[in-house]
Amino acid sequence: MNLVLFGAPGAGKGTQSERLVRELGMVQISTGDLFRAAIKNKTALGVQAQSYMDKGQLVPDSIVIGMVDEVLANLNGKSFILDGFPRNVAQAEALGKILSQRNLTIGKAIFLEVRKEDLLSRLTGRRVCKSCGAVYHVQSKPAKISGVCDQCGGEVIQRNDDKEDVIATRLKTYEESTEPLRGYYRSSGQYAEVNGAQDAELVFQSVKSLLK
Ligand code: ADP
Ligand code: ADP
Ligand code: ZN
């Protein structure tokens, strides 16, 4: 089953995707990771995306949608998780069209619910591997050796947009643009929600139970 995983910044989309990839062999399509890779490689796409990301705003829909379509074209039949896309109703509508052109479907759109008060500490404490994207947290999930990725030995850093001033804009962007997706997916019949405030392992069990 193919999934959309959505929720506020810090809700745990990346963390849960990592597990779905590891345990179930699904393919993670994280638009945030794709943009960060493009920025690192100094591609035209990266140059276009960076100013929006640094400010905590959404990258324009046309850029994101084209990028996702390209990834979907190269899946070779593997089940996938859309992590961080769609992020507004226009993207969700575009996704519907791209999927039907490629004879693909989304089984469930899973909303990870976390209270706003908990998001701030998750985001300010988040650290990520520069090389493989593995997700850490200074308190709840520190790397075994500080600054070094457990998975690949890469450098573990704080994202530019995980600074408090940008976080505030990202949370506002979420409320205005992404939260309305709950209603969108409720009416499509694909909506499911999981309590994202539980321990990450319990969240994973709940997500997995929705795949049956
Ligand atoms: P988080 O996981 O904390 O929510 P992401 O890594 O998903 O953050 O996204 C980081 C930034 O990349 C966003 O703030 C936005 O600028 C850009 N971005 C990612 N996905 C999308 C999308 N679907 N549409 C527009 N911008 C996006
Ligand atoms: P998103 O991709 O939705 O922005 P992440 O998966 O990157 O969210 O998680 C944000 C931060 O919160 C990370 O530092 C991660 O380690 C931590 N985190 C994720 N899930 C949980 C959880 N269930 N309980 C506590 N902390 C969590
Ligand atoms: Zn790594």
Q: What's the shape?
A: globular
Give the name of the CATH superfamily of the domain at 3-115 and 177-209.
P-loop containing nucleotide triphosphate hydrolases
Count of DSSP-assigned helices: 9
Overall structural class, as computed from helix and strand content, comes to alpha/beta
Topology pattern, helix = H, strand = E: EHEHHHEHEHEEEHHEH
* Range of strand content: 15-25%
Mean pLDDT: 97
Helix share bin: 40-55%
- Small molecules bound in the structure, each named once: adenosine-5'-diphosphate, zinc ion
Uncertain residue segments: none
Largest sheet, if any? Answer: 5 strands, parallel
Radius of gyration: 16 Å
Quick summary:
The protein has 212 residues and is α/β, with parallel strands linked by helices. The protein has helices at residues 13-24, 31-40, 44-55, 61-72, 89-101, 116-124, 164-178, 181-188, 200-209; strands at 3-6, 27-30, 80-83, 108-113, 126-129, 135-137, 156-157, 191-195.
Would you mind describing this structure in some detail?
This protein has a domain at 3-115 and 177-209: Rossmann fold (3-Layer(aba) Sandwich). Helix content is 48%, strand content 15%. The chain contains nine helices and eight strands. One adenosine-5'-diphosphate (ADP) is lined by residues 7, 9-15, 122, 125-126, 135-137, 140-141, 199-200, 203.
Write the topology of this structure:
Layout: E1 3-6, H1 13-24, E2 27-30, H2 31-40, H3 44-55, H4 61-72, E3 80-83, H5 89-101, E4 108-113, H6 116-124, E5 126-129, E6 135-137, E7 156-157, H7 164-178, H8 181-188, E8 191-195, H9 200-209
Parallel strand pairs: 1-3, 1-4, 2-3, 4-8
Antiparallel strand pairs: 5-6, 5-7
One adenosine-5'-diphosphate (ADP) binds next to helix 1, helix 2 and helix 3.
